[in-house]
Amino acid sequence: MALVNHAKKEINAKIVYFGAGHAGKATNLNFIYKKLKPDFRGQFKSMNVQGNKMLFFDFLPSGQGKLNDYAVRFHIYTIQGDVKQDSSWKMVLKGVDGVVFVADASSTRQAENRAGLERLQACLRGHGLSTDTLPVIVQCNKSDLSDAVTTAELQQSLGLGGVTFMKGVAGTGEGVLESLFTLVKMVLKRLRESGLELGGEPVEGQASTGAEAVAAVEQSSSLPAADSFAAAPEQAPAENQAPIVEVLEGVRLGDDGRLQIPLSISCGGMSRRAVLSLAVTLQPE
User: Fold this and answer.
1) Structure confidence at residue 268 (pLDDT)
2) Stated pTM of the model
3) Among 76, 84, 257, 278, which has the highest number of CB atoms less than 10 A from its own CB?
4) Residues 53/103/184/202 CA torsion (nearest 10 deg)
5) What is the largest CA-CA distance in the chain?
6) Which of 277, 243, 284, 230 is nearest to 257 (CA)?
7) For residue range 191-235, what is the model confidence (pLDDT) as tens digits?
8) Cα(272)–Cα(243) distance, rounded to whole angstroms?
9) Angle at 130 between CA 52 and CA 21, to 5 degrees
10) Could you tell me if 106 and 22 are in contact, meaning their C-beta atoms sit under 8 angstroms apart?
């Protein structure tokens, strides 16, 4: 669920790239990050979570797009590789506003795709969500493979009716931005219809359309034009240029009722330890 920061006049929405191991989740994020102009993106970060590497960054689609004078900032997350623990995915999916399910188009990987979808649905149920009500895009990644299934065959294999399926080749970037901004439009539409209270008025009462926030990519029906905020820096974000945050052992509840989480923060060959202090409020599920 999107979070509203009234002090900054921002709506923070969360998009998660989900899929089986090696389907192309991290490749998607790296390509998207390289294509965004620095003025529109935050820092590319990684964090070790239960032995898995979580990747994430945030971006603003356009300075022109606002809902009730509130900018919409999107936070994109994924977990790299083959994720063993469902708890890792459940943590990343908490508060999600939209999902790109990255499916491997290889004919030999359809069992993994189905298992990944079942896992996604189970994790979403744990948060009271489902693929029936949440904005979801299925990206048929690696569509350039010689044994690639068609989007129609993939749709039949997964059994997802009413969900948008799009071709993609994350390695070259084909269809990557189109998949993302199709989902962005869906999330914005859902935000408008949710009745978020902004400045005393619900979003849905505004004449402005949420699609304005992605005006840069709505210049044609095929959504190829991300040029007004997307550039192609030739250098991918090297991990040693961004802080690497690792959760250490020894998490405890302090005498003041706050959760104390030891962290190791590494950047540019330097490493520091810190403690993250969080106030904890228990609520019945």
Assistant:
1) 54
2) 0.73
3) 76
4) -90
5) 60
6) 277
7) 888 877 666 555 433 322 233 333 333 332 233 334 444 554 444
8) 11
9) 30
10) no
